[in-house]
Each structure stands twice: as structure tokens, then as C-alpha cells.
Queue: 3 jobs
Job 1
Amino acid sequence: MASPEPPASLATEFEMKVLFAASEAQPLIKTGGLADVAGSLPKALGRLGCDVRLILPAYPEALAKCDSLDQIASFPLPGYAEPVRLLEAVSREVSVPLYLVDAPRYFDRPGNPYLGPAGFDWPDNPDRFALFCRAIAAIALDKIDLGWRPRLVHGNDWQTGLVAPLLIDAPQRPATLFTIHNLAYQGLFDRWTFARLDLPRSLWSMQGLEFHEHLSFIKAGIAFSDLITTVSPTYAQEIRTPAFGYGLEGLLQSLGDRLVGLLNGVDYDLWDPATDPALVRHFDRFTFDQRKLNKLALQQEFDLPEDEQALLFGHIGRLVEQKGVDLILDVLPGILDRGGTQMLVLGSGDSELVRRLRTAADRYAGRLAIMIGYDERLAHRIEAGCDAFLMPSRFEPCGLNQMYSQRYGAVPIVRRTGGLADTVIEANEENLSRGRATGFLFDQANAHDLWLAVERAINLWKQRPDIWQQLAINGMAQDFSWQARAKQYLDLYRRAMGAPITNPITAAPSGVQGESSDFVTGFR
Ligand code: ADP
């Protein structure tokens, strides 16, 4: 007997073949929020019936986390001496089909996907990620006889920026959607690099990959993709302005409604205090009183006095200027000198910020604990144990930790920017009386404004613990799940498929095309 037809809506989704490309994905390899998204959005799309496949470079860390690896193709790429292998990988922790682009010369390196051991970018990063893009484009056009042709390629950040220009003129090309997770990282290289990468020379144009006489990977993704998204509505507005646009604001403005701001979601399979294996005690908003056991365990773990009454601040993140860690350092004396407060910081990054943190930890021994490094499970314990979470970012495309904090009952104190502005509801009188408030916001990226927000938090903690608890519980009740957002992505995929753009270089009025700076001659 013939098997029953799938429901109509699902059958439609089965037509939705998507190749999701990223340079990192949780739990295989992670440096930041991009990995959280690449690990969880494809899974959410898969649950909606979308045939989505994830593709990553074959870093050793990712290979080691796979249960099986099967070479399914080996193919040459223009500009590269050795053939590239495509591995079909299976990992218990990745629920969608997974491809790894194996080019040992470029990816068989330990540690961070972007940085060498001394903390500087690998000098051949453009070659590494141009290779990744070329492999994605070859797969997207089924040049390697995979027998599977995506209808859309979803690229993420500059490391996948060249995919769209490599596809733009191909007959029957798939649609392209490009997500900007952080415009500050652009993949900007000199024009000699462009020449070395053996890219079609026509792409060296003001309407193309050239950005002030440099090759810009992120501009490539923005200019050549059918649709462009970024990870919050506020950031989508901000990057259209000179203050956040890094010179790309004109291009971003010109996209009109082809640039969409869509908030990231939280993977509640991984981030749920009711089931999280990293916690000493599970809790939810109905058993909030159990939460304190996680706080006491955290204090014990870090040699802080086990004191339920002390207001424990937390911060987790990359120690970089963007995140406002210097502002936290500036307000530390204010926080810790007054007593009844503690602070815990987990992060890695800038050596000067690390030095300042270490000095502060010596000075405030027993009140400030720091952990320099990367520790996923500890991040979960901090979210579940601290009372307030500081995130004074100078800019924040979306930010995940403020959403994790809310889910885990830690009250966020954040700057009103990007996704922070879109996900935290200010604890003012009106929002408090309506039971909506979830945290504290401040406007300017300076220590004074941060301090005023921190002081409000300290006062509320001390004077109205009942309201504090309500704030935390309001946060826990927020729905940041991927489910609704993945549906919005599906809508955007359909929109991109229905409205392919033409090559912006050939589409530009003649005369404008000639304005790019002269190409270097004799570059080979
Ligand atoms: P970004 O992507 O700019 O780094 P996000 O807030 O979007 O910032 O995401 C950061 C992610 O990386 C979160 O999941 C956060 O918990 C995690 N993270 C950052 N630094 C560390 C660290 N040192 N240890 C553990 N997790 C970290």
C-alpha cells in the first residue's frame, strides 16, 4: 500500500532545500554567538520540515566531535593546487545533515578557527575562507554530483561572503540569503589578495567587491545576495547610519526592505535551567527558590563567601572593546567597595583587559573572581548562579547572554543598543506595575551611565527583594525560542527565491561602473 501523502504544508517545506554555511557551529566549534545560531537555527528549520544541510570547514576540533566521516567527493577548485574533499559527517549532537570541507593545508590547525596561537589572524584567512566559499558554490550548483541541489544558500558573516558573487551569474542558481552577525568583522584585505584568489576580475568594482581599494568579503555578501538579514531590528537600523555602518551604511541604506532585522533565538534544548546538566539544582520560574543553590555552589567554586544576601554580578564574553569590559572595570570600585556585592567574570581576549582584570581580582580578593579562558559549562553555571548580568556593550548586533540570563533568572543590566534594546524591558515604574519589566537599560557607553543603572539595581536588590524576584521571573517567562523565528526565516527564504536580483555590477548604469579604482596590472 502506498504511504500516505505528507500534509500539504509539510510537503511544501520538503521542497525547501537549504544549504546553511557558517565558519563555526555549536557544539562542533565555537568562538561566539554565530556558533550558537548555526547550531540551533538549522535544527529549528529542520523541525519545520525544511531540508536544511549545514556546511562547515573541517577543523580538527569539529572532526574530532563527529561519530562518523565519509568522503563523498574530491574536487579541484580554481586557484588551489590541491583538490578539496567533501566529507559527509554524522554527529550525535547535530540533528541536520552535515558537510565538512576538508582542505588540511588550510583548516588542519588547532584551536581558534580565525586566530593563530599568538592571538593574531591567520595570515592566509582570505585564502582559507575563499576556498570555503568556492566549495560551497560548487556544491550549490551541484557541480560535484551530490544529487542534491539547494534552492537557497544561507551564508553567515564575512567568511561566506564570496558565495553570492560566485553564484550570481550562474544559470538556474539557487537564491542567496546573507546574515550579518557582526558588521565590525568584515574580511577586509588588500587588492593583491584579490588578485591572488583568482576571482573573476569583473568583480573588482565599486558595485562589487572593492571597498576603498580593498577587497571586502562582507560587502560581497551584502551586495550580491538576494536578501540580507541581520540579527535584530534595532541593529538593522543602526548599521544604516555612519556610527555603526563602517562606511557600508550607504550600501545598506540602498537595500531598502531587502535588509531585514530578525532577532536570534535561544536553543532551549541547551539553555533551560529545568534540564541543564551543568547545574547543581534544576529550577524554573515556579521553583525559583531552588535557584539559590546554584548561587551558593558558584560562590563556593570561586572562593567567594557563600552568602545568599550578597548581590552577585556576572559577566561572560569576549574581552574586547565592543563588549564594554573597560566600563565594567571602571565601575568595579563602585560595585565592590560598598559591601554586600560580589562579581564573577568569565572571558578571554584582549591582553590589556585581562591584565586589568587580574589586577582588580587581586585587589578585590574574596569579592571579585575571574576566570580567563573559554568554558561552556561554566557559562551555564554563571547564568544560573549570578543575580545580575552586566552587558554594557558599545554595540551589540543581537547578543545572546542577555537572553540566556533572562531564561536563567539573572537580571540583565544592558546598554540600549542593537539586540539588547530589543530583548530587555526597562524596570521603570510603568513596566514594573504592568509586570513586564525584565532588566535595567542605560543609554550612553560611559562608566557614569553604566553606574547609574548598576546603582538602581543595587538599590532595588537591597530595598525591594520581592520586586527583584518578580523582575527575574518576568525574564524567565519571556519566549526567545527559535520556533517562531525559524518560521520567519522560511518566509524570507521563499521571498528570496521569488525575487532574485541581477548582478549589481552589470546592472549599474554605465559610467558608474568605471568609477572603481584601476586594477593593479601585472599582478601575477
Ligand atoms: P558574540 O557573538 O559577540 O561573542 P553573543 O552574546 O552573541 O556575543 O554570544 C556569545 C556566546 O559565546 C554566548 O553563548 C556566550 O555564552 C559564549 N561565550 C563567550 N565567551 C565565553 C567564554 N569565555 N566561555 C564560555 N562561553 C563564552
Job 2
Amino acid sequence: MNMFRGMLRVDMGIDLGTCNTLVAVRGQGIVLNEPSVVAVWKGTNKVLKNGEAVGWMAKEMLGKTPGTITAIRPLKDGVISDFDITEAMLKYFIKKVNGTNRLFRPRVVIGVPSGITAVEQQAVFQSAARAGAYRTYLIEEPVAAAIGAGLPFAEPTASAIVDIGGGTTEVAILSLGDMAVCESLRVAGDDMDEAIINHMKKTYNMMIGEQTSERIKIDIGSAAPTGEDKTLEVRGRDMISGLPRKTVITSEEIREALQEPVQAIAECVLRTLERAEPELAADLVDNGITLAGGGALLRGLPTVLQNKTGLDVKIADDPLTCVARGTAIYLEHIEEWKDFLRSDLEE
Ligand code: ADP
Ligand code: MG
């Protein structure tokens, strides 16, 4: 198979996430999974290493030369904060996957946050074209997540998807291939990490970094009691003495600390359900709610949402790859589902 790579047209599905970018190639599955991070010289938007300090490479460089280099997550809040940097990132990933294929330019389907503006959409089309795409389609992330989760998104029955990423939570009710109602909330995984940082400051006078805070969330965090509470030894810097120190924390206190972002997400789900037409709401009694994105893995979250809404809540298989797999499945049905998307042809 690999021997033909570089000779055939590559169809790529890209999940341009606020935390992670994934690329799925038709017929090969997921071929790239890297942080949506770009390293630039401090105070500029010049990407290091001739535009190649992107993804893992950017993350690796950061720990080593902290002074002059900064990390930028150009999609951090679900909006494109910097067009040039987003373009550099997209270019790098597309080229990395398309390799030395000069014969055929790739066709790409890009999953974008549902809240992005027309101007931002234009920027993505342009970046993809400059990165070598010969045709670009944009798919809203909740739609891609629903396809990836195997929901009957094109059928005349409603499905509800909640995609909890790093920067945004997208809640959508889909029917007949379209979003009947949706809301993009800027509260998601990053806010959970921040809540833990604040808790450590307030309770222990201890400063911890973002990576430590994310690890605490993943190791012992939960949204509701799960009957498997744990403790964890955490290292950080004492805010009074300025010296390194360690302390032991419990699942219970972290659960408490996470209540604010968790409740904000639950309220958003509730609001979206209340906006749905009665017929669609009725379908959800049977179809329930499906969770996708990394945030779906927070222990006890389905319980919280179930209690809040009274509906069944389940986690999609492999929630972190749902959007990327959805874009790839979309590619397989592109003729049949073309009407559901915007393409650069219409520009
Ligand atoms: P995006 O689509 O915005 O790039 P992802 O779907 O890749 O985001 O999810 C990333 C978020 O999921 C991060 O905030 C990360 O900390 C969180 N996450 C990943 N694994 C877990 C886990 N096991 N428990 C809780 N949160 C998790
Ligand atoms: Mg995502």
C-alpha cells in the first residue's frame, strides 16, 4: 500500500481541534494525531524552523527553550485567533500527510467549530488551498462527531451530540443531515484544568502548571462520585516561600473544584434541549445523548448529564477520534452527502 502512496490522490479528513489536530485518510484511518500548537518567536507570529515547529515538534521545543519561544494554540477558544498561524499549522499537517505526492493534490474535508464566522471559513478555505488542497469542504464539528459516533445523522430522526474539547463544548441536535439547534460554549477541558489550578492556589497556596493540572484531572478527576475515589501526590511551588513542595490531594476535592465548568456544560445541554422542536425532543427520549471529545472521558459526566436531562447519556466509542473518523466516513459518502456541506467551489 505504502509503495503507492505518493502516486494516488489522497482524500483527507481533518479535525482541526482546539487541543489536537487529527488527520484521517480514506482507506487508511487516522494517520496523524498532534497537538494544535505552533511555536513562534516571542512577540512575533514567525513560526520557528521555517514553519515546521508545529504539533509535537512545537510542544517538544517549548520545554527546552522557554525564554524566547512561545506556544500558540491558534484555535484555543474555538475561533481562529490568528489566521497566519492557523494557516501555518494546516499547511504543515496537510503536507506531512500528503508527503511528496506532487501528482495529485489532496481533497480535504475539514471539521471546524460550529461557531466560526464567514470570514474565518474563508480563511480556512484559503489556507487549505495554499497548503495544496485541490478541493476543500468544511463540515461542522458536531456533524462530523455525530457521523463518527455512528448516529443516524442523515435520517429523519433527531440525535443529540455533545462534543467536549479543550476550548469549546459544542452541543447540537441533528436531523436530516443538518443541525436543528446548536450552541457553542467556551467552557470545556481547559476550564477544568484552570479550575484545578485555582483550587490548588486557594487551598494549598501552591502553584501548579497546566500539564500537572491536566494530569490531575485525568488521573483522579470526576464530575460525580463513581465509588472509586483516589488520592494523588502533587508537586508544585509554594506561593509564600517560593520553594518546591508536594502535597496529597483527593478525588473528592477535585470533584468539588470541577463543579463550576461541569455545571456550565450541563446547563448548556439543557438550554439546547429546551430549544428543540417538540417532535425532535420526542425522538431524543429514545435516542438519548451521545458524548464525544476528550472531555467526555471525565468520570461521572454521563451521570451528571443524565440526572440533569432525564435522558440516556452514552459515550461514543473512542471519543477523541470521533470527529476525525466522521470526516473520513463523510469522504466515503461524499457524492451522496455533498449537499450537507459548504465547499470552496461555491466561493
Ligand atoms: P479538541 O477537539 O478541542 O482539540 P479534544 O477532543 O482532543 O479537544 O479533547 C481534549 C480535551 O480532553 C483536553 O482538555 C483534555 O484534557 C481532555 N481529556 C482527554 N482525556 C481525558 C480524560 N481521560 N478525562 C478528562 N478529560 C480528558
Ligand atoms: Mg474537537
Job 3
Amino acid sequence: MTFSTLGLSETLLRTLDEIGYSTPTPIQIKAIPAVLSGRDIMAAAQTGTGKTASFALPLLQRLANGNSVKSNHIRALILTPTRELAVQVAESIATYGKHLSLKSSVVYGGVKINPQMMKLRSGIDVLVATPGRLLDLFSRNAVKFSQVEILALDEADRMLDMGFSDEIGKILALLPKKRQNLLFSATFSDDIRKLTTSLLKNPVKIEVSPRNSAARSVRQWVCEVDKSKKSALLSHLIRNRNWSQVLVFTRTKNGADQLIRHLKSENISAVAIHGDKSQGLRTRALADFKANKTRILVATDIAARGLDINELPHVINFDLPKVPGDYIHRIGRTGRAGLQGEGISLVSADEVKLLAAIETLIRQTLVREVETGFIPNHKVPLTRQTRVRPKKPKKSKQGQPRGENRKTASEQKQDSSKPRNAGKSKRTAGSREKRRR
Ligand code: AMP
């Protein structure tokens, strides 16, 4: 399959050739013809699957064939949950549209509004925006929606998780009724389904990986550890395994700052991005990490949402996320564009409920390991997935267990006294056991 069979114009094919995209990804194969035909789409796809190009390329092609944009108006609106994702999508739009005479721009909060108002004055064909800032600009008459032909919601699930549902409702009410709608979401909760029912008309449904499953190219495992030892374990793993580029997730901003202090005290270069950091600091931190100037990037879920960092080999969950769907988003930062990655969760006993919820969501029991020197005093209890009801031994006629099940009392005692997780990175018995639901 090549891009030329999907109906893209010569100009876009030339651009793709220049940027080295030779083969369309599965979501591109399905979404590009659907969007070109003017249909609404509802796509379940994670970051890393090539979803941005799957809507950006046909969207640009449709706009390139249409009317010119009036001052302060826009023709396509792409909504994203975070500034970082907005910037990335806008960069992709600029790259894919470099040989087209379409104007694109990006607006998001946390920076001065005036330069954004100035840019909108001449009219913009494709505007990438975060919801709050867009409404702010609308209330100042800086942006008008009557020319909008296409709306794309990128990472719609995250927008709802982040509490943007009111803003989205307001924006939808301001847009012309006749338009094409494109909705992308990594997970499909009930709230997302409600939104799709009200928003999309007879959509083409696209699913490129099983719903609610984490990226398959990622080797995922759990490292059991006591809470107090997590920081030490992390620096030990980074050193011992010689990890060069690691994205670490913490649940809180405070947790991220504390971890940075620990890593720096261990002479490991690390920087944090979270909501309390200015946009300038976040952008620089990300650029340094991408350029391999910083070894470790510590991020909270919101700040890290949608980050596109190519060939990221390791993602660490320093804390498990409270919302199980965030696990999928976090792990989606690695194993991208067909590469293998590793997603490791440092799990302490108090997090077992969160672990169980994640395993239920991804329909998978995560392999458990322990690291020499970090064997936990407080074992992480088995989850429902790992727990296996002991088989009742079949009784022989004499009332004795048969075959392999037959053990002497002393053998049985020996078995139960075997240390669990002894040695380096041993898989626990529970992790090897078949899942029972
Ligand atoms: P996305 O899922 O949109 O975040 O894209 C993930 C990464 O894959 C980005 O770095 C894209 O530039 C890259 N990419 C998207 N489509 C292709 C393709 N057909 N061939 C090669 N790389 C691609």
C-alpha cells in the first residue's frame, strides 16, 4: 500500500516523499480516504500510530480546494487538550502543508493573547487550539466561526478527563451546523460515546488497535518495591541498565519536584514538566530531552499528554495513575512507529487497587519482577488477574492425590517456605499463572 492509492494530491505526495513517509500506517489507510470523501470519522487510536497525519493530510487537501478565508475567520478547527499537543499538531500541519498556500496557526493559554489576536486578523485556514484560549479569543472578537468547514477533536477522552466538557459544548454551539467532524480518542468511555452520538453523523468507525488495550510493541512489566525505596530504585535502574532517555511519570507536581532533587543528588541529569512550570520552561525542557541533552524527563500526566518523542525507549510509572486510562496514554509514549519500547511501573503495596484496575482495563496481567537489593518488605498482593484458586487434587481410590500432585507433608512445607522473588529480576509465580476471570 502506498500513499498515492489513498487519493492524496501530487503536492502532498511530494511533501510525504520529502519527509520520508513511504508507507501509510493502518489508521492512515483507513482515515485518509474517509476524510477526503467528506464523511465524519470516529477513530480509536493512540498517539504513535500516525493519527495526526491521518486527519491532517486529507484536511489540508480539502481546504486547498476550497474558498479563501476572510479576516478573523478560520476554516478548520483542531481542538487539543494541552498546549504541548497543540504545538506538535501545529508543527505537523505546517510540515504537511509546506507546499500549499494555506495559513495555519496555534493558540493556547499561559502565554500573551495579543500576538495570537494579531495572527488571527488576516484569517487562518487551519487553527489548532486548546479550548479555554479559543473561547477567550472568541469573547474578544478575535476569531469568528462562520466559515468553519471541518472540526477535529484530538485526544477527545483527555479533553473530557481534564474537565473541558463545558468548553467543548460552548464551542460546538458556536460552529456552523453543516461541517465535517473528526474525532480521535485513545479510549472510549461512556462520556466519549455520548459525545460521539451527539456530534457525529453516520461516522466511519476506525479502530486500529483493540479498544482500551495498551500499545503492543511495548514490553510492560511491574517492579515491586517499597514506597520509600522508589527513588533509590529508579536511579539504580537508570545506572545499572544504562538507560539513556527515560520519561518518568509522577502523579503530583510535588512528587515530580522531589524526584528531580533526588536524581540531581545522584548526578543524573533530569528536568520536570508540570502545570506549575511556565510554558517557556516546559518547551525548553522538552526540546533538551528530545535533543538528548537531558537524560530524564519527569512529567505529570497533564503536562505529558500527547508528547511525540521519537524512538523513546523507556517509560517509567513512578506512581501508578489514578485514572486507569492514563496508563495507556503514558505507555503510548514508547514503542512508537513500529519500534520496541519498555514500560515499567514501580509498584508499592498500597497501589494494588490501581494496578488491578489497570490490568482489568488492558485485559492483561502485568509481569512482576523484583530487583536485587530492593525486595519489598511489604509485598504487593496478587491482583484478581494473578490470583488462581488452588486446584483441588484429584483423589485416587485410596484418597491420595495422584501423579504430580502427590507430595509428602515435608515437601509441601518446603514449597511454601521457598522465598518469593529471590534473586535478581525474577518473575513471580503469580505472574506466570494463567489469568482467571
Ligand atoms: P502520531 O501518532 O500522529 O503522534 O505520529 C507518531 C509519529 O509517527 C510522528 O513522529 C510522525 O511524524 C510519524 N509518522 C506518521 N505517519 C508516518 C508514516 N506513514 N511513515 C513514517 N512516519 C510516520
